[in-house]
Amino acid sequence: MQLASLKNRIRIALTTTIVDEWSLLSTTSGTSRPTERGVAFHLGWHLRPMIERSWDIDCEYNRSAMDLEAVVALEDVEGRGIPDLIVHHRGNLGPEHNLLLLELATDRISPDGAEFKRARALQQRFGYQYAGLLDLRLGIDGKLLAPHWQWSTLEDGPVDDSEVYTPEMLADVISRTSGA
After folding, report:
1. Which positions ≥6 away from 110 have C-beta within 8 Å?
2. Per-residue pLDDT tens for 67-98?
3. Which terminus of the chain has fewer Cβ atoms in its 10 Å neighbourhood, N or C?
4. pTM of the model
């Protein structure tokens, strides 16, 4: 699968997540932001029908039988050492079995780019064809959300750093939510 096709599928899954799960993302739904784990679950749920059935989609999956912290020292500020969402063939290693590693951020992206560096390091360590950081930017700069992503391929390294939606597309997506 090519990166452009994968990004389109993730964009569709994200759009469905935003529209169908607006109460999860909306600041009017509680006093705290959603967790990356919660968003990753819904994103993976909506991504499942768009990915070939031979691939497994997992959230916070750690079955490599390796102590990631000791091996690659990739804990984030919350002490996590596993990716938020992966598309892979369970029990197999190598690029032919590891399609996507996706890190999510709701509103806590670090200015030094640590999250994307962590995703890249995990990509290289375990041979994921593609690694991405999806930063929802919830409530940043007075906006409800402003999704941004960074992408890397195993062969070429970082290849994209852009907004997920054009301003017009994002306005259309938000207009379809229950909060519009």
Report:
1. 77
2. 444 444 445 455 556 789 999 999 888 999 99
3. C
4. 0.87
